[in-house]
Amino acid sequence: MDSGLSELISTIKLIKQAGAFPQYIDYIQFPFFRNIELDQRINFNFPLTVFVGPNGSGKSSTLHALYGCPEGKTPYEFWFSTEVDPVEYVLESRKLRHSFFYGFKDEDGEDLQVVKARIRRGNNPNYWETSRPLLSYGMEKPPGGKERNEPIKKNVVYLDFRAELSAFDKYFYFETPPAHLVSNTKQDYLRFKSSMLRNLFNELYEVAFDPWGHPLNQPIIKLGENELKAISTILGKEYIEGKFLKHKLFRSWGYSILLKTRFHKYSEAFAGSGELAVIRLVQEILKAPPGSLILLDEPEVSLHPAAQKNLRNFLLEQIKRTKHQIIISTHSPSLIEGLPRESIKVFHQKFDTGKFIIKENILPEEAFFFIGQDIDDKINIIVEDTLSKKMIDRLLFKLGEEVSNRFEVKFISGGSSVLQQYISVYSNTNIEKAFFVFDGDQKRVDEHFDVNSLSDANKNVDNLKSVIRNQTGREIRFYPDGGDEGANQIQLIDMMIAYLRYYKMHVFYLPLSTPENIIWSEDVIQQKLNPTNLQENIERLRALGNNKERIFEASKLLFGAENKKALEDLLITDWLQKEDENYMSIKNMILHIEETV
């Protein structure tokens, strides 16, 4: 991860832990809301939250619910029932109305909950109001004997970038010139009206009027220094002047911009749609009061990947400075790259019901799976035997496709001695996405040696050989220039230091001496063996020297012939179900590897 991004995220976490974000929505829960699975909860543990998922998965609907959380706001502005698309009023099976509740802390640090529910008022089925806490939802009674808590007081900014079209684009793509106009083509009409737009930009007059004396524009806005700087940083282009105008010169209300760089001056007719979107976003965020709730629906529209990353960084900087809570819906890998687990929420459809569940604590690379982004450069886990590969493959499958899609487990024959030599090759070329997992019996020391602890005087060939031998239990060969006799000593020392450094970060061990010891279960064997001579066969297995031999012999007792693979599958299934301490150890190892890449 970029060090600047990492430092920025760490700073925001510290600010959040200090409780410096005012009127912060801690979570929102949906007992019954649109197409979201019942009782889904989203926790906002980091002030920048990103919703990821396919179209129609409820991301925008969730933004609409969040818009309706603060005092004076309602989801009705975005979602309402019509004759064509009637909204189910109540889920009859559980007598639930469309509703959501959220939690936040008041100025005294008291945890409060507020529920908003859709009710029928008169002939209006789309009315939303704050309700008394519903204990059936798992809500708590308000403190101090109050009937209900007041909604959170928070400024809200909502921008849907799919709808942020310039005035020029709105007319050119969606309007048809009226038949009575002299300008009978769109081009003629735009040319005719652009003279009035030019006069406004040139400030020949402040307001234009239609024939009936109605104003056709709002006052012109000149972009300030901070706005120009932010827009330039996001788009990677130096803007030295910008003017912004809301008007209906082209029949419908829309936005026009006039931009100036060191080389050009142009309007939105020649600007990219991404420029207008970024200007709108920067304007709204920079003028929002501190601690606002900022909701952005697909802000990456028309932005190239580098600009998307710059936008992400701009949002984080604004969070640090003004304590905004920002929530984004996106399909962009670039926007989520580098963000912490707690930032990312994946909307994922259940195949049995068609409803959408919300997964939390997802790494950006895992989220790529849900937005259809292939991971070409997978994390390689290299093991020394086939049983270790099978165990880790099955465990990855259990962790879910979003995790398993990031990994490839490889078995390299030749045992641990061959793998130790592989490490010298991998360390020399610094292959970052490769990790070695040895059986526990290869572990020689409790902790890997930290080469940074060596003084310069001790960084010599003899001492480094001793350290490596102590770490690995064997002599590792290196191949510097000059061959065995005239080896380049400085190069050899560099190779040995690189080996130890790589070993510390990229080598792991299974929790027990062999994978057979991890999965072996006498209980499973007893359940499967013929009860007629059960005790005799169990004693026979116990008398064998190790669990590898026991699995081999038990497979003959169970299947009538040696069928070790089938029994291994049976034992692995049982082990995965039990989730014992060895399972948790390997699972945590995988998650640690995933987070270090």
Characterize the structure shown.
This protein is an alpha/beta fold. It has four domains: 3-162 and 290-369, 3-Layer(aba) Sandwich (Rossmann fold), CATH 3.40.50; 167-270, no CATH class; 379-509, no CATH class; 515-596, no CATH class. Helices cover 39% and strands 19% of the residues. The chain is built from 20 helices and 21 strands. It has a six-stranded mixed β-sheet with strand order 9-14-15-3-16-17, sandwiched between helices. The chain has a five-stranded antiparallel β-sheet with strand order 2-1-6-7-8, with no helix packed on it. A hairpin with a 5-residue loop joins strand 6 (99-105) and strand 7. Helix 5 packs antiparallel against helix 7 (305-322) and helix 18 packs across helix 19 (564-578). The termini are close together. Residues 80-87 have low confidence and may be disordered.
Spell out the blueprint of helices and strands:
Elements: H1 3-17, E1 25-32, E2 40-43, E3 48-52, H2 59-67, E4 90-91, E5 96-97, E6 99-105, E7 111-121, E8 124-131, E9 156-160, H3 167-174, H4 186-201, E10 221-222, H5 225-235, E11 239-247, E12 254-261, E13 265-267, H6 273-287, E14 293-297, H7 305-322, E15 325-330, H8 333-336, E16 344-349, E17 356-359, H9 364-370, E18 379-383, H10 386-399, H11 401-404, E19 407-411, H12 415-429, E20 434-438, H13 461-472, H14 489-506, E21 507-509, H15 515-519, H16 522-528, H17 534-542, H18 547-559, H19 564-578, H20 581-596
Parallel strand pairs: 3-15, 3-16, 9-14, 14-15, 18-19, 18-20, 20-21
Antiparallel strand pairs: 1-2, 1-6, 4-5, 6-7, 7-8, 10-11, 11-12, 12-13, 16-17
Helix pairs in contact: 1-7, 5-6, 5-7, 10-19, 10-20, 12-14, 13-14, 18-19
